[in-house]
Amino acid sequence: MKFSALVSVLFICLFFAACASDDDACVTVLDCPNGYSCVDSVCRPPISDGNTDQEVDSDVTTDDSDSDNGEDPELDEFETPIIGDDDPAENPDDITGCPNACSGFGECNFETGVCTCSGNHGGADCSECAEGYHLEAVDDDEDGDGAVSCAVNVKCSSDPCHNNGCREEGDTVKCTCNPSNHLGGRWCEGCAEGYLLNNAGVCKEDCSLKTCPAPQKCGIDPATNEAGCGECENEFYSGANCTSCDTDHFCNGHATACAVENGAEKCTCEAAYTGEKCNTCANGYFQSNGVCVKSCDVNKCFKTHECTGESLIGWEMTGTISGHGTCSNTTGECLCDAGWITGTSSLGTGTTVQCGALVSVFETLNNVECTICDKNNPPSQYASSGCPQELTGDTSLCNSIYSLTFCGMSGSCYYEPTGSHQLYCVCSSGYHLDNGDKYTGYCVADE
Known about the structure:
The chain is mostly beta strands.
């Protein structure tokens, strides 16, 4: 213990001896001349005004150099930077708020704290209306801006209601619009709800009130700016009353007309088409490359032709000739019924035939199809008797007045359905074969 105490005393003595050897050394400011400062154990002279910034910077640098981290000095992120007194614009002392923030109807002067109100507002906080203005009622938007604001004062003497009823209420007026004219609006300047101002300046009902019979619908005529029933519910309808329809849309483009009847479309098909929508081929036509084309001559394929007139011997007679076939809508051919065939004439396919027996020749039909009775395979109605000679296209005159050697005037010629298909006679009622042989006999009257 005594030894350590002795060491301490010697250290203190040596310290003060070292300090006494230097005139500028100090422990406190009391060790320095008047006006000096003790900085880092050294007496420093007073800092002159001209070198203030430089000395301050030097001190700061010296202090930073002794810092533990050795990094460049930076302001702490939470430190508020010091604004110099020589920049009052950035740090004003006289910031003053305006009352009620000018109520949103003016601008605030922060130096004076006074509001500059907009043209139709007034008062210290711009919450009042300027002279000549009044505050609108909540349910009465006089100026049409959609908000409660200051509106100009109004009197009835200037007739703001466009020649309608007017009564004064405080600084404004109330208008009573004439119902007979269907006027409306705050100042009776427009049309009431449900009405539209036409180009003549008259309020007419709009489409909210206009009713139209189906299939018509209401629309605005741009020429008059009036509601009318000139439009159609269906875009493919047309006409003054929407009674016509588009043939391309409803009739596949194969109709001569399309009409709207009882809410439905009715097509008048072209000759080659049939069906409600004209989407199938009519009888006598078949589809080729998406369109219906005429297949065979329907007038000569299966229809009966009536002929009348005067015969060669001056008698008035009638006759028929019929084609026994149907037109195929897939092949375009005339399909003959069983037992009937088509021959060939000088005019082309088909047979030139005469109407009725040769005795009544007065009309000739050319190229009639399916009119020849097939001798080799007679149709069912002639299965037992064979084909009548006159229906075979045969030109023999077995039953005419020019051939009295076979059958005569009171008999008819038939071809046997089997065998050699010879001609034979069948006598009319009241007649019989003179020799009893149908192949060689002659028809004579019964006794």
